[in-house]
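INFO worker-7 received task bundle
INFO bundle size: 2
INFO processing item 0
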Amino acid sequence: MSIAIVTGMAGGIGKASALMLAQKGFTVVGMGRSDSPNLSDFEGLDVEYVQGDISSKEDRRKLLDAAVAKGTVSVLVNVAGVAPKTRCDLLEMTEDSYDYVMGINTKGTLFLTQAVANQMVKQGEGGSIVNISSCSAYTSSTSRGEYCISKAGVSMITKLFADRLSSEGITVNEICPGIIATGMTEAVKEKYDNLIAGGLVPLGRWGLPEDIAKAVVALCDGTLGYMTGESLILDGGMHVRRL
C-alpha cells in the first residue's frame, strides 16, 4: 500500500493536497496542529489524521510511525508553515518570533524530511518529496523577514535532499506559491485584494489551494518523474519583471 505523508493537513494547501492524493488512490497520513479539524471532505477515503506540531521531535516521530504502520511510505509533502504572529519592521523583529517561525517552517521541515528520507532509503523503493516553499523565498518583505528567511531555507533543504537522494531514486522538488487564499492570508485579504486589482498578479486573481495541490499530485504520481531539485513557481505570473 502506497502511503503519502502530508503536513499542514488541517486546512489550506495541506488539506487540498491530501484530498487530491487520497482521491488518486494514496493512503494519506496527515498531521496538523488543530485538535478538531473539519475533515468531512475526506469521507470514504483512506486517510488518517495525527494531531501534532512538526517543530516537535516527538510529534514528527509519531507521524512517521503512524505512516509506517500502514505500509510503504512513498510520498512526503511538507506543507506545514506559519507566519509571524505579529508583522513588524525588520529592525524590530524579535528572537522569539524568529525561533517560532523557523522552528516550524525550516527546522521542522528539515528534520521530518530527514526522518522520512531515511525510511524511504530503508524501503529501497524510491519516492517523492515535495516541499511547499513560497514566493517569499526570493521576494523581500521587510515586515515579515523571519518568514522570508524560513522559506529561503526550505529552498536549500530541497536542493540538498535532491542531491543526496537522487541515487536512491527519490525525487525532491519544491513549489513556490504566490498569493494563495488560505487562513494565513485571510488577515491581509484587503491589502492583497488591492494589490491584485492594481496589477501585481498578471493573471488577475488570487491563487487557490487547489492550484497548488494539482502540482503536488503531478510531482507525486510520476507525471513529472524526471524532475528533481526543481522549484515550480505558481504565482499567477507575479514573478515576471514587467515595464
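INFO item 0 finished
INFO processing item 1
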Amino acid sequence: MTNILLEGYDIDAPWLYGTLKSYLKPCCRVAVIAFSFRDSRVKSSEDWDLLYGKDHGKYYNGIVGGFASYGIPADQIAWVNYFTDSKGSAAEKVTGADVLYFLGGLPDRMMERIEEFGLYDVLLKHSGIVMGYSAGAVIQLAEYHLSPDEDYPEFRYYKGLPFLKDFYLEVHYEGTDIQNESIQRVLAQRGKPVYAVTLGAGAILAENGDVKILGDVKEFLPGKRTEDFQ
C-alpha cells in the first residue's frame, strides 16, 4: 500500500508532481471521501454541492484539476456523498477505486461518518493508494493528535484508520509555540517520531514501511526538544 499525506489539495504542485506521477496514472479510478465537512456549514445536499458539486462546488475544480494534471479525467472520479449515497453505493465507489482521497476539514467527524456508513472495514481492505490532505492526512494514522486551534480548543488524541502506526503528523506547521508544545507532548507520551508538514510546502509518502519526505517537512524524534531542530 502507498499512503500520501498532504498539507493541501494542490497535488500538482511542482515539488510534488515529479514524485506523484509515478503513482497517479491516467488509468486510475479515484474515490473522493467527502465526509469531513463542518455540521454548521453543511446541513443538506445543496450545502454539500456548494463545496464539492460539479456545477458550483468551491473545491470541485481544484480537486478534479489536480488529478487531470496526471491524466485522470473527471469521469474516473467518484464522489462519496454523505447526503445522496446509500451505504451500498458508497461501498461500491470505494471498492471500485484504485485511489482513495480523503478531504480536509474535521477528521473526527469524518471518522464518525465513515462508521455511520459502515465503511471502516471496507476502507481497510483497500490495497492501492490512500491519499488525503490536512484532516485527510491525519485520518490515515491509527492514532493522531490535534494541536489546539479554532476547531479543537484542547490537545487530544483521536482514533483514525490503522493504515499507519509508526509516527504522528503535525499538519499546517508554522513553528508556533502551541504546535511545538503539542509535538513535544506526543514525543514524550507516545515515543514515536512526529513529522511536521510545513504550511503549503510539505508532504509525506509512506510505502510498505518506508517514509519519504516531500518538500518542507521537519522530523522530530523522541528524546529531543523541538528547539533542537530549529
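INFO item 1 finished
INFO post-check item 1: The mean pLDDT is 95.
INFO post-check item 1: The two ends are 33 Å apart (CA to CA).
INFO worker-7 idle
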